[in-house]
Amino acid sequence: MPLTQCPECAGKIGSRAFLCPHCGFPLLPAASKYTGRQSRKRRPNGSGTVVKMSGRRKNPYQVRVNTHINEDGYPVYDVLASYPDRVSAEIALAEYNKAPYNPQDRKKLFSEVFASWYLWKYKEPITAAGKKTSSQYCTVSAYRKCPTLHNMPMWDIRAVDLQALLDNQELSHAMLEHMRNLFRQMYKYAIQFELVPKDYSQYVTISKADDDVHGVPFTPDELRALWAHREIPFVDTVLIYCYSGFRINELAGMPLDDIDLIGRTFTGGLKNRYSRNRTVPIHSAIYDMVCRRYNRQFPSLIYHTATDSITEPRYREYFNSALLSCGITTGHTPHDCRHTFNVLLDRAGVERTVRYKLMGHKGQDINENVYTHKDLDQLRAAVEAIKAGA
């Protein structure tokens, strides 16, 4: 069979070949009688082009779309991507022309999509001054727990990247739920505006056991020990948790504006619609402790030493040290305080629907979920039914 030359790479090929075996250049059976180059049908105007870049490159074939001439007479275009051979580039261009998109959207970082989604959802930028809702606070907290995603193009993120974050056993179950909820909302937004190929958030799960299922309440003797040593640093925070029922990050992350010292209430909560934005009266026995810790120098009621702000891991160290200083050797966690509050309500004879309201739990039937409404006076009476003190 006679040989000829590839017009793209100058390699020797058979005269009847349809693809160059060296560079993958598509060949037509007939050669131009004027140039000797293989003739190629002209692509329609506006459908983009494939350009081979000069020099030694790993991916020399560049796909260009949306080409136009600017006011200075120079061509301007978007680069779709670069490929190792012409065939791959032609295929990519053909796929693009089936459903054209803005190539710049596929370069948007996770952080950029988060900022645009946040503005779209809350009607204000992340940097806006003023009071934030509990939902906004949880959203920003969840975003900050995903630093590995911040500088990744949203288009390139896959389920494995999301799952790696949700497998972090050092985070609380509540925080992991906020992160998963953030992923779901952002992907719903990104799908709507064609910023991602598919919704990868639907494939991720939380592997950590729900920390609402497990817990060891403080015993009456342990509570008496806490009250007897309440002047020891951070013992006051243990008692505040035990007599309010909030999860660790619900109270620690609660904006100070949502702690009403005049009305004597906490308003906040995380996790689900039954738990969010619930109001819990401040028990009279812990009111003075709350007032002493309420300091506008710090964003958190709990995470500070009166001189410096602290992190959650550091707080857990102080929590454990405070218990040991009181002579409590049981391996309690801050979440045990929440179980203690529920037990105290039960021992005080508080009816189930009121306990559910204070704890932010879902009721067991439609009457408890929908038709039972408890006003603040009823909730305060229930909280005050708990006996407190040494």
Would you kindly provide a brief summary of this structure?
The chain is an alpha+beta fold and 390 residues long. It has helices spanning 86-98, 110-122, 134-144, 159-166, 173-192, 220-228, 235-242, 248-252, 284-293, 312-325, 334-347, 352-359, 366-371, 376-384, and strands at residues 3-5, 12-14, 49-52, 61-69, 75-83, 259-260, 265-268, 278-281. The chain starts with a strand and ends in a 6-residue tail after the last helix.
- Identify the overall geometry: elongated
Strand content: 5-15%
Number of domains: 4
User: What's the CATH H-level homologous superfamily of the largest domain?
Assistant: Intergrase catalytic core
Give the helix/strand class: alpha+beta
User: What CATH architecture of the largest domain would you give?
Assistant: Orthogonal Bundle
**Distance N terminus to C terminus?**
102 Å
| Helix run count | 14
Name of the top-level CATH class of the largest domain: Mainly Alpha
- Low-pLDDT runs of 5+ residues are 30-36, 363-373
Order of helices and strands: EEEEEHHHHHHHHEEEHHHHHH
Helix percentage? 25-40%
CATH topology of the largest domain: hpI Integrase, Chain A
Integer-rounded radius of gyration: 31 Å
> In this structure, how is the largest beta sheet organized?
3 strands, antiparallel
The chain-level mean pLDDT equals 84
Number of strands: 8
What strand line-up does the widest sheet have? 3-4-5
